[in-house]
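Q: What residues go here?
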């Protein structure tokens, strides 16, 4: 079996089926339930003639349906396409056409926009509508589509590490562009900072079954690559991902407190500032929260200082995505060439490039443990720089569970 995202998810679901995989707007799904619903949707797509290599748009707000759609398409070797829900008609027409969509799962909040664009994209032939609003006549209700189908995996295709996930850029510097990721490259590159190396895909099941499950709050919309990566990193550590339909500082505080989130993933100051302002308005402790990680935009020092004033035991950092790490057959790129026999030098910004293969601690001379030195906004505990002892094979996603050691 290859390093394929759907295969890995199925291994995790098989290992910890009763563990909570997802919390969204008052609704929780276990790994078994999420897997079964994704299987039902995959069978529906198959019956509709959608299969390997076909592109299907996810024009949705955050929620279980977005992740079910992504997983269903990955199970089929089809390609989910993120659609920016803020786009107006001309932008949607461009993206639907440029991405060669043959299917679309959309929120009924956007029915008018989809209706305006649909006649201009003749390839788009299959629609599913999510939500209580009025749907297009050509669209089938999402829950109805699932209800007609079995929840097992029988009949789903064998998959490949070469299967694709496409993440469209936002178009802030020009027209949106689809960035194509092989599943294996996404796992070993963009996710390498949060998923410890695997000798084989089958190894992930026993690993997550033996580990304490992390709880992640992914604040950005799933149309943003940051939340997609955060979600799969959480899944591949056997944890729970928490979502809100529309982000607000107060909503984030509520979910973190209620669900015991240990990590919060954001996109720079645009998300950190409303969070800080909610704390300014009603200060409160968030004892579970130990990491605020930002990707895709800068988390500036003044905003980090404001976070520290409210959450002195919480560490914040900016994460950058490394290229795919070197293998025995592939020499390291310059960004991957940092020494693997010692931890990275202290840095005011913790970067995923500091541990490109996500495995340097496994090669640390000590047989059972390794050390990671970092300077962050407010490391815990104590002082401006600390060392942490990590179990062999553990990943940065489990950093809150590591024990501090003397410098």
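A:
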């Amino acid at each position: 079996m290859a390093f394929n995202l759907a295969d890995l998810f199925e291994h995790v679901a098989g290992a910890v089926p009763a563990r909570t995989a997802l919390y969204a707007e008052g609704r929780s799904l276990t790994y078994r339930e999420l897997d079964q619903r994704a299987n039902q949707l995959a069978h529906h797509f198959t019956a509709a003639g959608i299969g390997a290599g076909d592109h299907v748009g996810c024009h949705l707000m955050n929620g279980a349906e977005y992740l079910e759609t992504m997983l269903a398409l990955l199970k089929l070797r089809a390609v989910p396409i993120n659609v920016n829900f803020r786009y107006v008609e001309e932008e949607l027409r461009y993206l639907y056409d440029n991405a060669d969509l043959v299917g679309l799962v959309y929120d009924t909040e956007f029915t008018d926009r989809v209706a305006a664009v649909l006649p201009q994209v003749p390839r788009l032939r299959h629609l599913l509508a999510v939500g209580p609003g009025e749907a297009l006549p050509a669209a089938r209700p999402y829950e109805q589509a699932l209800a007609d189908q079995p929840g097992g995996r029988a009949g789903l295709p064998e998959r490949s590490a070469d299967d694709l996930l496409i993440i469209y850029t936002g178009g802030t510097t020009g027209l949106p562009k689809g960035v194509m990721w092989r599943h294996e490259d996404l796992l070993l590159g963009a996710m390498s900072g949060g998923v410890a190396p695997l000798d084989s895909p089958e190894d992930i099941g026993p690993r997550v079954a033996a580990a304490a499950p992390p709880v992640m709050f992914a604040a950005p919309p799933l149309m943003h690559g940051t939340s997609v990566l955060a979600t799969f990193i959480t899944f591949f550590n056997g944890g729970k991902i928490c979502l809100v339909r529309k982000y607000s500082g107060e909503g984030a505080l509520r979910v973190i407190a209620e669900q015991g989130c240990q990590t919060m993933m954001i996109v720079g100051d645009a998300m950190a500032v409303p969070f800080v302002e909610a704390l300014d308005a009603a200060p409160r402790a968030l004892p579970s929260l130990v990491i605020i990680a930002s990707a895709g935009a800068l988390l500036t020092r003044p905003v980090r200082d404001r976070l520290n004033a409210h959450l002195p035991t919480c560490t914040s950092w900016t994460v950058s995505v490394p290229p795919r790490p070197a293998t025995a057959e592939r020499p390291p790129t310059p960004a991957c060439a940092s020494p693997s026999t010692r931890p990275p030098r202290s840095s005011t910004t913790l970067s995923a490039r500091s541990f490109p293969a996500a495995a340097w601690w496994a090669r640390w001379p000590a047989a059972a443990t390794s050390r990671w030195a970092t300077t962050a906004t407010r490391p815990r505990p104590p002082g401006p720089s600390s060392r942490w002892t990590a179990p062999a094979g553990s990943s940065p996603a489990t950093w809150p569970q590591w024990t501090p050691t003397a410098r």
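A: Context that may help when evaluating the design: The domain at 203-397 is CATH 3.40.50.980 (Rossmann fold). DSSP finds twelve helices and 17 strands in the chain.
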